[in-house]
Amino acid sequence: MIHRILEDKICRFCLVFLLIFTCAALFAPWIAPNDPNEIHYTARFAKISWKFPLGADYMGRCILSRLLYGARLSLGSAAGITIASSVSGTILGMISGYLGGRFDRIFMGVCDAVRAFPGMVIVLVFVGILGTGLLSLCLGMMATRWVWYTKVARNLTRAERKKEAVLASVMAGSRMAGILSHLIFPAIRMPILAIATLQFGTALTALAGYSFLGFGAAPPSPEWGMMIQDGRSFISTNPSMLFWPGLCILMVVIAANILGDRIQEISEQVRK
Amino acid sequence: MKNYLQRKLLGMLPLLFLVSAAAFALVRLMPGDAATAYLNAMNAPITEAALHKVQKDLGLDKPVVVQYGIWLKQALSLDFGLSYMTKRPVIDELMLGFYYTAVLTGSAVVWIIVFSLPLGIMAGRRPGSFMDQFIRAMTFLGSSIPSFWLGFLLVEFFSLRLKLLPVQGAGTLKNILLPSITLACSYLAMYTKMLRGGIVEHSGGTYVLYARARGLKRRTILWRHILPNALNPVLTSLGLSLGSMLSGAVIVENVFAWPGMGRVIVRAVAGRDYPVIQGYILVIAAVYIVLNLGVDILCAMLNQRIFTEEET
């Protein structure tokens, strides 16, 4: 089914777009024109130039270099959160849906409880206990995000469970792990992938938002939300400081949203 | 109906217990012990005698379960203790902010209704049309734009360039315009999309075909038959969104220096003011849970189908 995504024009466009950002993050040390934390006092608020392709911030640090290094933090954390929560949530959901019965009922109750929780409250608990920082933010966000996959994975698994192929392998004595990974997972991965893609976008925005509030990365690290926070004091004189990181977030999130939406559409078409 | 409500209400109890336990655990699990942190926050010298006294005062020498009981009893009577930083009762600080946050959230809801209803109908009425494509593009933009960044863009344009609206502060109607739109933006996009989807989906229903066959006008079918059905999921989510908007308001409040609860909590986190963090968690969670319950009840009253579908 993956080939259907790759064949789709819109998906391909978004994927290439996201790939460019990923490469920029991966190869930041080689692409970045300057050290992201090096201070050039003479170049405070420098205009766009060859030395500072997007200008410099209030300390004379190269904005482009900071964006590139920031991509590692922002995109990396968002991807980490999404991967960890989608994998754990999907596995839990599949097991719950497969087993059914009382366990399933109780576990779904727990999931509803977690879902009814404002994510911010959990993040605050983690930040309160572990102190501010990207790690406690990520943990706090993961603590509530897995549940979105669980519900979907569980419902899809329950539908798959009734299919003949699954019943046959249950009767043939296959182990649960084998059935889940070979029969059920391939059938439900597309909707899960769609949610994960959409969640990547929301994770990135939320992460930047919390960092903006000062719950996340500590200065001088060039996380995108932090950069916007840095730039807010200079909004009237130098709006470019907060313009670029915001634009980066916006572009990545739009690409992720369109891609996720499209994958969802494709998976619905396949289903029919 | 009564059964359903009972089950919903009972379901809330473990949730409330979990929240309170999490808020309580926050102070128990924080780095360093609570007594030292308290003295630090009070700027008092840390001596053996002082530690002992504080432990006694805060009840730290009792078993954890007893401590939790005492703490819960106080919390239930809205006594969250004194803020470490301002030395004022936490509940006073929060309530002052709560009013402003509620005003902000309420205005955002007004924007959501005013915009997403007509936009969703316009897009859903003719799927695939230019209008639909345009609104679709706008919803992608609206749901993707980070709220704090949007806030700054609006400030930059309307306040600094055009000098039409104040940059920050609260009080007048002009003050609330930008913050509430900023807060509403992503939800607005979400609901427009949701409503459009609902209208498109229901337009294909057999009852619509039948209504057409009966000779009803398209307009009547849309307003009387399709829209009520399409609005149903929107209403359910709106309740959920209210809760997340209360916490989402934190960012917007900090962008516009709006004196809501969000300002209080950010200051508290920065200053490790644990009683305030605790109180905030409890208040938000309680509001959230009550809102959810209210929406459930409302939906149950509007839509009897829930009871028959419940068991599937």
Report on this model:
- The complex is a heterodimer of chains A (272) and B (312).
- Chain A contains eleven helices and no strands.
- With 272 residues, chain A is mostly helical.
- Chain A has a single domain (2-24, 57-271), classed as Orthogonal Bundle (MetI-like fold), CATH 1.10.3720.10.
- The longest helix of chain A is centred in the last third of the chain and has 38 residues, at 176-213.
- Chain A is elongated.
- The mean pLDDT of chain A is 86.
- Chain B is mainly alpha-helical and 312 residues long.
- The longest helix of chain B has 39 residues, at 218-256.
- The radius of gyration of chain B is 24 Å and the shape is flat.
- The model of chain B has no long low-confidence stretch (mean pLDDT 81).
- At the A-B interface, helix 5, helix 6, helix 9 and helix 11 of A face helix 1, helix 6, helix 7, helix 10 and helix 11 of B.
